[in-house]
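Anyone opening a protein record will find just a pair of labelled lines. The record below illustrates this layout.
***
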Amino acid sequence: MNVEPSVRVEDKLYYNRYLVDAGHPHVRVRAHKTPSPQLLALLKACPARCYELNDNGQVEITVDGCIECGTCRVIAEPTGDIEWSHPRGGYGVLFKFG
């Protein structure tokens, strides 16, 4: 039996590249004073860990590294907590090795 060594998700994500569209993020967090339960869920649900809590207790996103999986779209777009759109042509994630 041939067993392959386990590889962490973070190690696989390292191979992906992201072409940043400066000034045109495809995901935006709407302004808020306190984060909704949906925004707080994104801190753990995002596989690329693009969401984080800032020093003021608000959720922010860094779209560099977003794998465009749609998890945040399913969780927080229906409630209006985020605005999500496809990146403009030629920008966004560049998958490597499958």
Observations:
- The longest strand covers residues 17-19.
- The chain is about 20% helix and 20% strand.
- Residues 28 and 83 are 5 Å apart (CA to CA).
